[in-house]
Amino acid sequence: MGEICEFFRTQGKIKNESAKGAFERSTDLMQNLIFGLDKQTLIPIVMEIGAIPEDIRHDSSEEKLYAKVSDIVLAKCFQEFGLKSSVNKERANCADVMAKSQYHGYSLVGDAKSFRLSRTAKNAKDFKVASIGGWKGDSDYAVLVCPYFQYPKSRSQIYGQALNDNVALFSWEYLSVLLENNVVETHNANIANLWNLSFLLSGNINVLDKNNSFLDRQDELLRTYLKLDQENFSGYFSRYKASIITRGEDEIKYWEVKANEIKLYSRERAIKELLESLKLSEKIVTIKKYIDSLREEQGE
To answer: Is 257 helix (H, G, I), strand (E, B) or coil?
Structure first.
């Protein structure tokens, strides 16, 4: 099911999930592994990290770890570009990834997003562009990294927000292109304009059009920056589309197998699985704890 699925399946399991500190230990393990990868091993993972494997349960510890792994992969990409980068372990109201130029003094914050291929209903809140702009603080730039083909295709307020707050709407595909073209910042090469794309675009977009997708114009800026002809640049994205299609076919097979397994369930097992999937026991316990605390306050 692809490089990232295999990597995560073999390395990303949380051992003894109930044990205190298990998530943190798993996060540290994954960070050590990913930060130790060479570029050629990293590139296939970058190409696939944007799609959460369907066999990872929704809202599970593994899904939370996958989100953290996405942050780690983004930080590793920044490191490959010659920046100093780290992952913020505090998730609340702050950027997940921080990076700083070793040669030119600028700094940036980054946020990584991954979505399931089975999830189609996404809105502006899922991208958190406005939040990322606010998390920038004293940093010079803010970068959102999402799957390229999951961005809204026509109009969305995320485009206006990106222009207003100078948030670069990057993608895992963009990062892969940069890695494959050996982009690295040096004393003589300042790559700050890569993180400044929204500002560069804003001067040519009028107020009425600010919520229109500008990805095609952004593609052209990146293509020009890399000095690639249209055929070569488009070739990368054709390859990425083909990879996503193959990955999607594998995910469909996973659900088809799961559906056939469910058809063989006994009535008792089907009921048990449904109750577990709805998390009814957990909901009851949560409500009970809440009302018991109120009873204690009342002296009952």
So the answer is: helix
